[in-house]
Amino acid sequence: MQDFYDVLHSRRDVRTGFRPDPIDDEVLTRVLRAAHAAPSVGFSQPWDFVLVRDPATRERVHTLVDEHRTRYAASLPAARAEALRSIRIEAIRETPLNVVVTADPTRGGRHTLGRHGRPEMGPYSAALAVQNLWLAARAEGLGVGWVSFFGDDGLAELHELLDLPPHVEVVAYLCVGHVDAFPDRPELEGHGWARRRPLEWAVHQEGWGSRGLPGAEPVALLESTVDAVGPVDEAARGAARERLDRMTKPRGALGRVEDVAVTLAGIAATPIPPVPAPAAVAVFAGDHGVHAQGVTPWPQEVTVQMVGNIVGGGAVVNAFARQLGAEVQVVDVGVAADLDPAPGLLPRKVAHGTADMTEGPALTREQARRAVEHGIEVARDLVAAGNRCLLTGDMGIANTTAAATLVCAFTGADPATVTGRGTGIDDATLARKTDVVRRALERHRPDPADPIGVLAAVGGLEHAGLAGFVLGAAALRTPVVLDGVIAGAGALVAAALAPDVPGYCLAGHRSAEPGGRLVLEHLGCTPLLELDMRLGEGTGALLALPVLQGAARAMADVATFDSAGVTDKTDG
Ligand SMILES: Cc1cc2nc3c(=O)[nH]c(=O)nc-3n(C[C@H](O)[C@H](O)[C@H](O)COP(=O)(O)O)c2cc1C
């Protein structure tokens, strides 16, 4: 039994370190027999194995894969493309054998048991054959690397090269050969490309959301995340401060950049924090019932139009992200229209917009909680996907009204000092908006000790999502850069749930919205930039990213007086 688990846990996708010696026929037959023993839908055994040894064929396939890799690299944000450069994705020419595993969707006839209505069961079955092959190969000391870098044109050419019948589909292209050693963790993890998700995140009891390993008390995502937020590491902060004083520069000469370095050190719990790259901005989008009160001159459908623009890459957030090498992810938590699926759009809709908070609660408690939990999951996914810095973004016509109300609820400030001109409103609209905020507060009397209740009464779905996003980042000890007043309102909710949250937040800029200043004071965050921006989308957070990256890079790269043999100044 133990041997089986050893094989299972030490199986790796291998792309390097192959020996050129051929694979013994008997060994290969055993491995293929293991593959052929896989379970299959209706016992249809839809797989075939094409063994490719011819160097000329492998050379051609390598070229196809390389072309696709180039196209993939060109589609990546700069920080990802840079990381990809040092990653091998195939060993087509270095392995003596390539195995192409196919699936025949027609095998077994039209009445194949279990495939009726679920055609994908065919290729799933072939994938299980691949897994059996992979494990058996590991037990034989053979490395296997799966190559999926084929576009439609590449697959068509592969079909031709190997004389595959047109009705058969390619499930896997595998590079197989002897290796001296297997890496002890996934190579992509070693490169920082992605991390393993804890099993606890993936096991739900009885229904989605109540997570826990067998035997453990199941916990809800919100509570377990709040529990996981602890204080930043004071010892690391102290050591970083001390190192900054020993670096070859006058003490304190980097001004507030030194504070940023110390903050990052405290978050990462190490004096030399990792450079916060790659970074991803999550733009939470939602609509607002309070729009009906005439708080903005912009029609509500601008939300969905701008979501389309961001997903299509045409907004300011995209331009800034492109320039800074960051990824943009749009999260539909509450847009009032149904959105078509698109790459870069996460469908997490809780409701088609909130209700009008001047007439009743904006959300139910359940909706508010669900949106917060979506935010936590987005943070988890982005961190597990290798991001070392998260940035907040938002899109939602009328969302500064909900933000102002949240800020008042958590800080006790008067609506007149918090409510701002948002996208640029005239005096009459500002007076109406301020009155709307005041009426909502009077109606609901939200209790800051009940943050989910506050969100439900006067919040927006994007504020709730952002609250979860900030909590999720803090729980994973990942720096989160706040954009403007919308993110700030979300961070106030997060801080009310878990008081250590502000230690993980960096304020990208001070928004021109009056509530922005108050939020940052309340959170104890000093804005890094002050550029009179009031766009949202994540733009102000993105522009501050190079400050964080420069601060961390300096901690790693700059010599100390002792190491460089530079004389420090004398006291006085
Ligand atoms: C369906 C599938 C496709 C994959 N495609 C590629 C690929 O094109 N190139 C590559 O280097 N690795 C590929 N891999 C390997 C994964 O990157 C690898 O399984 C993952 O990083 C975990 O590492 P491990 O297999 O060593 O545990 C693929 C794996 C699967 C299951």
Automatic annotation (TrEMBL):
Keyword Glycosyltransferase belongs to the record: yes
EC number: 2.4.2.21
Pathway membership: Nucleoside biosynthesis; alpha-ribazole biosynthesis; alpha-ribazole from 5,6-dimethylbenzimidazole: step 1/2
Alphabetized UniProt keyword annotations: Cobalamin biosynthesis, Glycosyltransferase, Transferase
Top-level taxon of the source organism: Bacteria
GO BP, sorted A to Z: cobalamin biosynthetic process
Residues forming the catalytic site: E537
Catalytic activity field: 5,6-dimethylbenzimidazole + nicotinate beta-D-ribonucleotide = alpha-ribazole 5'-phosphate + nicotinate + H(+)
Pfam hit, one: Nitroreductase
Enzyme class: transferase
Domain Nitroreductase: 10-178
Function: Catalyzes the synthesis of alpha-ribazole-5'-phosphate from nicotinate mononucleotide (NAMN) and 5,6-dimethylbenzimidazole (DMB).
Family in the record: Belongs to the CobT family.
Protein name: Nicotinate-nucleotide--dimethylbenzimidazole phosphoribosyltransferase
Protein source organism: Pseudonocardia ammonioxydans
